């Protein structure tokens, strides 16, 4: 099995050695009419060759816009893969927490929820299981009773002072519709 291989290697070695020391022997040359390139003969084998080799190769380079759209998506089509910047984030000056515009900071929200739960539990104790047919006013420590003035409303007395974030004005109903108080600049005329 290995003997034919060794003999083949030995023959190629001798041929290479003889070519390096002795000039090549004269060869016979034949002249024939020149063959012309005929595209029809090459076209027959070409399509099958193209189809088999170039299946997975792109024929044209994609434009930069298409490549970037595939990579990052497009905002106008709703396929954007980038996280958009949120410019509505603010910092609460009192607590130092971040919050979005139109929302409360988390700690302030918790304070308000705790205060509201206390008020709701006291309202539940006053009305019980009956109908809640009267207005409720919340009176904090240090506030006067005569300012409430409405006899139909029930007063809930709190043992603490009114928190700074719990505005009294927001708890009062407006007695009458206020006309618009538009401030006009003076001295323009």
Structure write-up:
The structure is a single chain. The protein has helices at about 5-20, 40-55, 65-70, 105-125, 170; strands at about 90, 100, 135-140, 155. The strands form two sheets. The protein has a two-stranded antiparallel ribbon. A two-stranded parallel ribbon has the order 3-4. The protein starts with a helix and ends in an 18-residue tail after the last helix. The protein is mainly alpha-helical. It has a domain at about 100-170.
**In sequence order, what are the helices and strands, one letter per element?**
HHHEEHEEH
> What gyration radius follows from the Cα positions, in whole Å?
47 Å
- Major sheet attributes: 2 strands, antiparallel
Overall pLDDT level: 79
Strand content: 5-15%
Give the CA-CA distance, first to last residue.
117 Å
Structural shape: rod-shaped
Unreliable residue stretches: none
The count of DSSP E runs of length 2 or more, i.e. the number of strands, is: 4
Which range best describes the helical content: under 10%, 10-25%, 25-40%, 40-55%, 55-70% or over 70%? Answer: 25-40%
Q: What spatial order of strands do you see in the largest sheet?
A: 1-2
Helix-strand makeup class: mainly alpha
Helical segment tally?
5
């Amino acid at each position: 099995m290995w003997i034919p291989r060794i003999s083949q290697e030995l023959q190629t070695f001798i041929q290479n050695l003889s070519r390096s020391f002795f000039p090549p022997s004269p060869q016979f040359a034949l002249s024939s009419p020149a063959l012309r390139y005929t595209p029809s003969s090459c076209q027959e084998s070409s399509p099958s060759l193209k189809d088999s080799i170039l299946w997975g190769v792109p024929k044209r380079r994609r434009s930069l816009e298409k490549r970037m759209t595939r990579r990052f998506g497009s905002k106008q089509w709703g396929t954007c893969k980038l996280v958009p910047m949120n410019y509505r984030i603010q910092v609460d000056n009192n607590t130092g927490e971040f919050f979005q515009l139109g929302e409360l900071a988390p700690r302030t929200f918790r304070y308000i929820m705790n205060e509201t739960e206390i008020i709701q539990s006291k309202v539940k104790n006053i009305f019980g299981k009956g109908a809640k047919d009267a207005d409720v006013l919340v009176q904090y420590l240090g506030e006067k009773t005569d300012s409430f003035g409405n006899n139909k409303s029930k007063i809930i007395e709190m043992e603490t002072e009114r928190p700074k974030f719990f505005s009294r004005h927001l708890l009062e109903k407006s007695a009458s519709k206020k006309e618009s108080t538009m401030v006009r600049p003076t001295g323009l005329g």
